[in-house]
Write a structure and sequence with these properties.
The chain has 199 residues and is an alpha+beta fold. Helices cover 16% and strands 42% of the residues. It contains four helices and 13 strands. A hairpin with a 2-residue loop joins strand 3 (39-42) and strand 4 (45-53). Pathway: Cofactor biosynthesis; riboflavin biosynthesis; riboflavin from 2-hydroxy-3-oxobutyl phosphate and 5-amino-6-(D-ribitylamino)uracil: step 2/2.
Length: 199
Amino acid sequence: MFTGIVEGTATVRSVERRSGSIRLSVGFGKGRIASIGDSIALNGVCLTAVNCRPGMVAFDVVPETLRRTNLGELQKGDAVNFERSMKSSDLIGGHIVAGHIDGTGRIVSVGRDGGSVRMVISVPPEIGEMISDKGFVAVDGASLTPAEVSRSGFTIYLIPQTLERTVFKERRKGDLVNIEVDIFAKYVKKFVEGRLKGR
């Protein structure tokens, strides 16, 4: 589990394609930040460390993950958001994030709004219907507050601190972003659908 509070960005060092899957090697600067078997979210996707050395961690990304996320678009030199899995004693500064991506959205526009950046993101209707105005949504792993919500998309406002610590400072119109809706919204939707079908 994660909190959606991005620790910072890391840099893709290599992308090795392996019969439908990829081996993704990511640089985190100096020091060892993970051990084999640890979970780290990259752009909100929970991945397992399969090879670790100082400053570098490798992950295997399977076809299902590539289909549902933007990780398949990564190239050497790209930046990714990262967050290590939370400990039971950690404060949840954002919201409960599973690292299981529901799908992707596409950035429709990016513009200044006072001291913040206003970003409009389009999403498929099946995702949009689970996002609530002033609720929770994880975009590329960052816990954010959606506004101006419809079934086809929503708006987020990014403060300078968020821009500084994340890949959002590099995001542009047309870019693909990973979306994970609030886990409680998914359970409520499933419960309601189940009750309706049972009538």
